[in-house]
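Researcher: Please predict.
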Amino acid sequence: MTDADRKRLAAILGMLGSSSAGERDAAALQAEAFRRKHGLTWKQLVADHVVVVETPVFIDRPMPLVKSIVSAIAEPFPMVVLTFVTLATIFAVISRLLGGI
């Protein structure tokens, strides 16, 4: 299989993740046609290209919500402030609902 064939197969397989059922169906049919055209089984098609990762791979991407939760737990002062603000907001809402008592 040539490099161009591998790129074509990767593009076809990428369409399997489409949110459109029609695109997914078409991609599955194209993948099967590709396999038949090259006279390979699925095992033969992917056997030389499977990479087994023995250690977990972590993607370093920003996660602001998780970061803020961890910092709130790790530092007690912000949690106290957050609790106070939350309770003050709840009391203000209840007070307005009860007619400003």
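Model: The chain has two domains: 3-47, 64-97.
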